[in-house]
Amino acid sequence: MQNNNIEDLNKAESTPKEESYGGFQYRHNYDEYKKELMEKQKRTRKSIVLSVLLIIGLVVLILCLGAYIADTILKTKGSSLSAIFQNSSAASTIPHKSELTESKINELSEKYTVTVTAGTENGAGIILTEDGYIATSYSLIKDHADFSVKINGKEHKASLIGSDNEGDTAVIKVELTGLTAAEIGYSRALERGQEVYCKQGDKGELGSLVVYDATDALKIITEPKCFVPGAPLINSYGQVVGMVSDKSGTSCHLDAILPFIKKMLSDNASITVSRSPVFISALGIYVESVSEKQSEIYKIPLGCFVTSAHSSDVFVKGDIIVSVEDEEITTSEELARLVKSGSVVKVYRNNSYIELTVK
């Protein structure tokens, strides 16, 4: 009996004791309690990690599904998400000019167009340099010893630097600095049917004109005509491509009179001249050449970059035309010479090559 009591006592001592007090139980075996607590915390952390991973997985799945749906929709429209993202750092970001709205062209032209007064005759002039060289019509000033220029509402006396009767061009100068000079465009790129702009009327409102004939070596004919001598003829990029020569309403090619103008300037004066973009009438697009540097930086082929395609059902802005009938091209002159109705052209679009037929 005594042995049994001793065994019962030992068994009781090895068994964790619990006491009840005020509805709460206290575990006397702290080591067991601590072990259980650590296990519980471990299970809790594991549960949190699994929950976070599950949420991340669901988000990624939803994004992938959304991207797939968007890409499928874009592909039905001839594009793709990959093309959009790649183009955002390639061809679409190539520095190039964009066509301007009429209001923006008007805003620009007001900065470089001045009023020229000779006797009782009023005309216009084009600021060529920031230090006061101005081109105007020789017919306007040739019979007058004195003439003035109105800039920003103020009259300034001007002096004659030189004149060219054949091109009906005069270069005059005012003693001012800090003027806004016009950017000279490539007038030989003008095509019949191309839209241009010119100041018209006594108030000098900007009006839209259409090129009727620009094939003459000197003259540009528009419909309607402009009758403000010395007024600039402006393309849709805000560049001056011609100057109204006299009251007949015709304009002269800037390319034709530019050599004379440059001779009249001082050695330290310079004119801003741009040879792009060029309008290709057969395609209804404006293009500019991709330089070797641009080709290297943006990882794109050499060719003619389409800067505007509003008048085309075949090309889109951002296309790079690389060949016509398997003959490689790198300049607008090559493109204009080779392309015709029915020509098959190779185009780099959305990071791949396609072939298009000119209508």
Structure description:
This protein is of the alpha+beta class and 359 residues long. It is 30% helix and 32% strand. The protein has 2 domains: 102-273, Thrombin, subunit H (Beta Barrel), CATH 2.40.10; 278-357, Pdz3 Domain. The longest helix is centred in the N-terminal third of the chain and has 46 residues, at 30-75. Mean pLDDT is 81; it is low at 15-28, 77-81 and 83-93.
Quaternary organization? single chain
Known CATH architecture of the largest domain: Beta Barrel
Roughly what fraction of the amino acids lie in strands? 25-35%
Mean pLDDT: 81
- By DSSP, the count of extended strands is 23
Question: What gross morphology would you assign?
Answer: elongated
Tally of alpha and pi helices: 8
Terminal CA distance: 117 Å
Q: Tell me the structural class.
A: alpha+beta
Given this structure, which CATH class of the largest domain is correct? Mainly Beta
Q: Pick out the low-confidence regions.
A: 15-28, 77-81, 83-93
Q: Which radius of gyration do the C-alpha atoms yield?
A: 38 Å
Reported by name, the CATH topology of the largest domain is: Thrombin, subunit H
Percentage of residues in helical conformation: 25-40%
Biggest sheet details? 7 strands, antiparallel
Count of the domains: 2
